Amino acid sequence: MPTSQRDKLKEKIHEIIFEADTTAGKAFDIGLLLLIMASVLVVMLESVQGLQARYSDFFYALEWTFTIIFSIEYLLRLYCVYRPAKYAGSFFGIIDLLAILPTYISLIIYGTQYLLVIRALRLLRVFRIFKLGHFLSEGETIVRALKASRAKITVFLTFILLLVIIIGSVMYLVEGGQNEDFSSIPRAIYWTIVTLTTVGYGDITPATGLGQFLSAFIMLLGYAILAVPTGIVSAEMVATVSKAGRSNNTQACRYCGGEGHADDAVYCKYCGERLN
Amino acid sequence: MPTSQRDKLKEKIHEIIFEADTTAGKAFDIGLLLLIMASVLVVMLESVQGLQARYSDFFYALEWTFTIIFSIEYLLRLYCVYRPAKYAGSFFGIIDLLAILPTYISLIIYGTQYLLVIRALRLLRVFRIFKLGHFLSEGETIVRALKASRAKITVFLTFILLLVIIIGSVMYLVEGGQNEDFSSIPRAIYWTIVTLTTVGYGDITPATGLGQFLSAFIMLLGYAILAVPTGIVSAEMVATVSKAGRSNNTQACRYCGGEGHADDAVYCKYCGERLN
Amino acid sequence: MPTSQRDKLKEKIHEIIFEADTTAGKAFDIGLLLLIMASVLVVMLESVQGLQARYSDFFYALEWTFTIIFSIEYLLRLYCVYRPAKYAGSFFGIIDLLAILPTYISLIIYGTQYLLVIRALRLLRVFRIFKLGHFLSEGETIVRALKASRAKITVFLTFILLLVIIIGSVMYLVEGGQNEDFSSIPRAIYWTIVTLTTVGYGDITPATGLGQFLSAFIMLLGYAILAVPTGIVSAEMVATVSKAGRSNNTQACRYCGGEGHADDAVYCKYCGERLN
Amino acid sequence: MPTSQRDKLKEKIHEIIFEADTTAGKAFDIGLLLLIMASVLVVMLESVQGLQARYSDFFYALEWTFTIIFSIEYLLRLYCVYRPAKYAGSFFGIIDLLAILPTYISLIIYGTQYLLVIRALRLLRVFRIFKLGHFLSEGETIVRALKASRAKITVFLTFILLLVIIIGSVMYLVEGGQNEDFSSIPRAIYWTIVTLTTVGYGDITPATGLGQFLSAFIMLLGYAILAVPTGIVSAEMVATVSKAGRSNNTQACRYCGGEGHADDAVYCKYCGERLN
């Protein structure tokens, strides 16, 4: 096969697998999404004992079918991209690999097949396929607001961590003797986190009067603390919303498969190669 | 009966049933609200076994009485409106039909009568009856803010869904063997949602040390995540509050029964017919 | 006793009881606060069975002592104010009366003495006594923001109420047969509220797969819904904070005992009488 | 040893212990952080009965080793600072002392060694060591926003406290007789706080129909109330974010060990001595 012909084939495969503008490309992407959803569903159902007992062989066959299809797809992606290493190292490249590895590993180590749910992450492609670039840019607005408040949230979480260690130890001292539930400081810290975040399972609860009094105090504290991260993110969101630009571009780079390029971009912002 | 006379009758019925400006119209509407509330209450009480055993016949009679009254009202509404099809297809038209159907269906399929609580939705008319147009426009402000943040919330929920699938699977791997509570991935995902949303029933709780450590981490994550939708809605609400206009008009179209017209509207915005 | 002398006495009593500017007035107010706190504490401890069994007589004596002191104080307040009816009908006047009534009523109906905790509301005077007018005006900022968002919150709560009735009925249909916990629609509605507000006791939990799936959906909904009231209040608070004026006046009207007058007020804003 | 030589030694020690700019200083600080983390971990593990039974002697030895190291460090800090009293009375000075005291006290009173987790607070130095001044200033932004909303939050918490006392008493009256869970007003108040803050353990739950109805009402109230502190903090955060200045200075005063000086500061803002 002469080089130019092989290049044409590569070009063709790239268009179908990476782009969603042609009919074939769109059909491929939608089929892929359905396959991914089906495969995630199978992994979930496989863990249900009643079903596993009855359909064991069926699930096993399905799992390998999905894995082989995704493996072929992965190899094709590597093949048709100009710079396979770039793609393999990109976010989607890694996800695509992690989505097939567990089945192979499960031949050696039992149980790893449940890690296949990582395939769910591949569904993120949905935003690109349905030209939901608008949604992607909204996602970026959220990410930008979170990034802007990163420092504040780090300080806040450090503070919470120290608080939780100290409260947990005090509760251990108060309840430890009389209450089986608070049998160690780590357990007491677990309880403190369950309480401060207002999850409140009730698997561990204070039994002494003093313990309940302290708990009530901790809950009110949690109530006030809950306001802080919300305030931080709200403030940044208010600031970010007005600045947010919108981009709707779904083009993928021919060299590394990178996405999210500006409308007027001429070169890929990840690998520097020319976009077509 | 000559056409003009029949038209007058229609006019009269329309005024009583659809409008709330005349004494008769207001009396009808308030009576209707009380009937609706009573009928919803009866459906609820009917489900309480102690009461059902004793007052079974009484409830049955009441249910059919309400249904027949509402059926007549529905037919009258269809009759007096110029374009019955428009009304039947409108939001309130569908609700009005759904509010009577379950009783008839319960003759064939048992249990459907509990669906009658859909009648509760008819209470939304309360805003129109008491000239609470102001409240309606406030509701619109909320809806507008939610619509403006729709894209962000979709991205956010997609992200949460994927997160929940992956966390659930990891917890299944960690707890699955030792803990009856985490007997399958769907159950583990259910637990993850219960935890991330800080509901925390406590019907499923981690038992191993590693599971509790991961749970604590997931809760802190949920804590931070909780801030995101609040931040999104707050930011949009801040932006929307200032723009919000107010309308207090309670006029209903003579042709299709549509409501929510601007004060200076001459034609119905739903069917284009002249308003009186 | 001549009128002028009686007036002087009234004046003196008013200064001590109502004002907090003189040494005697401040001493009286602080003593009163301590008495109130002690009496609320006694009511609470009285309900603890272990203590009640042992100190029954002591608690009984204390309760009557507090009640008699507060009764005398109430009569003195009525006596020294120019317009007793105005004071008796004011917020603090009603609270002061409710704070003594239950003890007298408990002579006739058993159990009412626990209503004495209403005395706790009298502690609100603390803000006036310690010249915390600044705090009061902050409280007014909150109230103003809440008032501004009243319409939105009413619409929101109406919506929640209807949602809760419908979700509750659906869950009753789904779980009712197989699960003792969902034995009636009112119980299912109770569960829905417990879940939507993320309280999550766990005393009622879904048992069927479908029920758990719906619950997960309801929780994510509750998550999104939680953002709405916060967004409303935040938006109004942002708007209100900038407008908020501050007042620090602790003067009480000589005629009706009303408080919260502007610094440049010459006449009481409640009864129209001249302030001194 | 002549004075000048002793001064040089002091200077050297100060540089290593207090500053993080030289290699030796940084190495010391990182070593210190690791020691603190190890010692907190040991205190936690010591409380786990299984481990305590087996490694009792090992933990005991470790605890004393850490305490002796930290004691020497504390004495060196006191020695090399020009004004030891200032350092001893500063925030970090007090923490440093509290971090060693419990071990010595545990010789007399059993159980106090668990208070050693207060050492965790020493980890706050991490921000200075890694030149995370940026983070510190972010923390100050949070603190500033919280301070600005202090008055509002005080009013809010007072209101919550009174609300909780009254609701608790009403629930005691309603449930008290039929339900073991609500055996006293303090317990009922504990339940109210657990519910209002949406923690919801489920260790205490209403059993009567009326009690559940009231609970549902209280939860919806808690839902609305939750919006208030978040609104307060959000509003202040929006206002504070724009004003926030940034400082990145990690210099510690030679006299009192005080930190957080402005870049152009020539004199310590705590003790007024010249900075080098």
How many distinct helices of chain A?
Answer: 11
Just name the CATH architecture of the largest domain in chain A.
Answer: Up-down Bundle
- Which two chains share the most extensive interface? A-B, 54 and 49 residues
Roughly what fraction of the amino acids of chain A lie in strands? under 5%
Instruction: Look at the structure and name the CATH superfamily of the largest domain in chain A.
Output: Voltage-gated potassium channels. Chain C
The counted number of beta strands of chain A is: 0
The first-level CATH class of the largest domain in chain A is given as Mainly Alpha
The number of distinct structural domains of chain A comes to 2
What's the end-to-end separation of chain A, in Å?
25 Å
Write down the overall geometry of chain A. Answer: extended
Radius of gyration of chain A: 25 Å
- Largest β sheet strand count, sense and barrel closure of chain A: none
Order of helices and strands of chain A: HHHHHHHHHHH
